[in-house]
Structure formats: structure tokens, C-alpha cells
Amino acid sequence: MSESAPELTSPPWHEPLWAHMAQAIETDRVAHGLLVCGPPGVGKRRFASRVVAALLCRERVPSGDGCGQCPTCRQRIADTHPDISRLVPEERGKLIKVEQVRSFSQRLQLTPQYSTGRIGWIEPAEDLSASAANSLLKTLEEPPPDCHIVLVTDRVSALMATVRSRSQLWRVPPPDPDTAQRWLDGNGIDTSQLDADSLRAPFAAVERGDRDYPALVENWDADLANAIRGREDAANVSERLSAPPRDLFLDWLYRRAGAMLALALEAAETGMDPAETTPERRDLPESLARIAIRLDPVVFQPWCARVADTARLARTNADWQLVVESLFLSLKSCVKRRRTP
Ligand SMILES: [Zn+2]
Predict the structure, then answer these.
(1) Which of 217, 271, 294, 331 is 20 to 30 A from 51 (CA-CA)?
(2) How many angstroms is it from 161 CA to the middle of ligand 1?
């Protein structure tokens, strides 16, 4: 599964379509063949990945999305999920061959590892040769139980009518330029060179973008650790943390606060000794995990609630740097050490 940019926030122009899809998934009425189409750059792959994530997860979150945490979600994100089979051209620019379709169809017949069933991913679907498309028809018509075949295409008109008619069409619309600009800005992607046409294909800008997300997160983690330890004052930290990309920052902060609180609770319940334990967590860097096991969860919990309020203030005209500063000022009083056993 190609998760081209898993850390991006959800594109708002997908939401109406997603609401329909989430409802269909929730009520178990998703067609077996899903044809995700739309113009280039609108985020079709992103939408299709979201569908697959939701179909394979058994602990979906209220938005209908996959949780991202359970074992199946982790396997999908790591690209090692055993129930996902991909059908793509062997080389870029070449057609998908009929032999490839045969082995793809056979894989879909195998018993899935998980009860959520199998996923077949075909991309780009317009690259199916005529014989390959013909060979796929039987599988599309009578797919194995609990199997979903997701076809992604920029050019639905280039697909054989027989393939189209056996799949349910999900057309991802282009955004209006203002919406796209806000979303790109929020994700830290430079829009200064983009005209209205380019803004209607924002994912093209994402692919070109030179944003270095891991480096951003590393800096934020260091700032958060320093702020909690009182090694730097709130004003300095806030000046850096209030710089764009705001949406990504909030997403990161929300996840860190939640993970730290979970670890603080676990440490308090199990009586972990901070002097002896260095917990290894997938969702926290070591520096923050070391801090989290020392936190008193009762005192830290209200700060986590303030993080959620801060996310709401991001949508208002409030002075963002002041909002962040006040959040980090209040962090000091929240960071009390729990009494160790
Ligand atoms: Zn999950």
C-alpha cells in the first residue's frame, strides 16, 4: 500500500465523499469493486488508502478512520500487511500484463490472515492491458467473500467499459483554490509559487514539496522536553513552536500529549520506578518517555485537555503565538512528579 504522505492532515475537500464512504463501511455496504477516480493531484491515492485503512481496522475511530495503532494498522503502515495484494506495472510506463492479473487473482482467493478480509489494490487502473482487463473481469464480478478490489485511476475514460461497469465509482473532486491553499499552508508546503490551476491539484505540490517532516518533529520533541524540564522559558519555545506548519504541529502535540498521559498512567498503576526503567514506546521518543513516567497523571491530565482547547483556538483570530505561549506557561504548573514507590 502506498501511503504517499501518511503524516498529512485530511484534505477537507474529501470530507463529503468520506462521510458517504465511512457510512458504507460502518453499515457493511461497501461494494466489492471500488473505482477511485478524479483529476490528477486531488488525492485519490490518499482517499483510497483511507478506505483500505478503515476496511482492515477493527478498532476504527469515530471519524470512521482506521485507528493507526492496532496490529493490523501497524502492518498496513509498515507495508507488511499480509492481506493486501498489489497489482501495478512491472516498470513505470509499461502496461499491466495478463500473467500479473492471474497471479493477483489467485492471491485474492487465499484465506486471509485476518477476519477483515483481503484487499486488492490496482494502480494505475488505466494501465491494464486489454487482455489483462478481460482477465480481471471474472474476479471483479465474483470476488471471494470479504474481498475488496480498489482501482485507482486518473483517466476513468481510458478504462474498459466492462471494468467500469463492475465497479462502484468514487469520484474525488478537486478543491477550490482557497481551500487547497489553506490546507497546504497548514501542512507546511510552500504555496507562494502556485497559481489557481496548480492549487486545484494540491497533491502534485505535496509530491514536489521539500518539507522535512522528521526534522520538524525532532525539533518539536526537543522543545517540548526542554519546556517540561524548565530548561527554556515558555516565550522562547513558543516563538519557535508557533511557526508554521500549524496543523502538523497540533497533530504532533495532540499525539505526544496523549501518549505521555497514557504512559504516566501506566507508570503510576504498575509502580514503574523512573530511576530504573527506560520505557520503549513506538509513539514517544526516549527523552519524552523518560519524562512521562515521572509525571503525575492527575496533574498532567488537565494540560492534555488544554491541548484540545488550543486546537480549537487555532481556527479563530486569536494571536497564535500568545495562545501557544499561554499553553506552555501552564505546562510548568502541570508537571509535578509522581511519588515513586
Ligand atoms: Zn487499527
Answers:
(1) 217
(2) 35
